[in-house]
Amino acid sequence: ACKLLEYCYPQIGQLICSDKPDLQTNDQGLGIEVAAAMLTQDAIVAGEFTKYEFGKKDAAERNRCLETISKYGGNVSEFCVSFPSHSLDDEFQNYRDLIVKKIHKLPLYRAKGYRHMGLFIMCSSSPIPFRIETLKDIFVTAQQSGKDKFDYIWLGYSCAVLFYDEATKQISIHKIPRDTYDQLAMDASPRL
Known about the structure:
Layout: H1 2-8, E1 16-17, E2 23-24, E3 30-37, H2 40-55, H3 59-71, E4 75-76, E5 81-82, H4 88-103, H5 106-111, E6 116-123, H6 132-143, E7 152-157, E8 160-165, E9 170-175, H7 178-188
Parallel strand pairs: 3-6, 6-7
Antiparallel strand pairs: 1-2, 2-3, 4-5, 7-8, 8-9
């Protein structure tokens, strides 16, 4: 998220990776919460596959992992796991849920002195094609659940970052060449 924001929006300046909020400017002008856009069933399947592949050695425990994976729509082959298919409505509901979940933190950050707050939603894959105005409507309606609102919401994925500005109610897109995205991902990866 940090590398994508610095690349797409250099006017933000250098971001500090921290906690509460996850990203922030040095002067507390901007704080950004970061969230992964992973559907609950995908998270369960991924967690169970990790336990199956690396954690559980007992055959009965491994079978329970396989049963849970299957129950949530996943499937395990010899060396990998497949995830259940999703609809556009599933993705949109996930974005709504993330906004509602994170919006309750805003009063804490405002009390710390952050003048502007944002939410960066990172997608592990490109979203199903949609109309950009539909996404804007989702951001507007999801924020109605809280007393405060995020000033900015970003949706990042491998070929673009979408940006929503609450003050202007405008949404825009910043496209990213795939090779640039890959380099940013490499730069953000911890060195082993």
